[in-house]
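Readers of this paper often ask what the protein records in our data store actually look like. An entry from our holdings is shown next, in its original layout:
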Amino acid sequence: MTERYFYGLRGRPPGPGATPSIPHEYILPEAIESEAQYESPRQARANPQDTRHGMLIFTHVLSADDIRRFDLRNLNIIRCPHCRTDLSVSESVMREYEHKTEGEASVFAEGFYDAHAGHFESEVFGGFDDGTSLYDQRDDSDTCMSCEGAL
């Protein structure tokens, strides 16, 4: 399956000079709101205005220069469901590794979600103690660093 990368048209509708001149698919604003297949980019918006004029889908990631030049909104990010913080930026997520021995302290890692690879990337981690202890990463072990909401 070909990768798909989503970008919102906030500032202007598509047309000559208004979008990158590379192959892409255009999605109408109404389809973004109503079709289940667009749930992920819909959730990635900071607000509905990010797709006011529709959405473009490319088979590769656009450069920051293209995003800026065409006034696009990157919808390939993961946002906190509580405060809408972009969780793909540095040190936006705290992950807890719970010690399996009752009463022992947990260890924590700070990082971000890599939206394209689909996993957590640790940036700050002190490591586990002596290497013989057992730790568990629970399903609810990730927390937004902005609002402390469970992810």
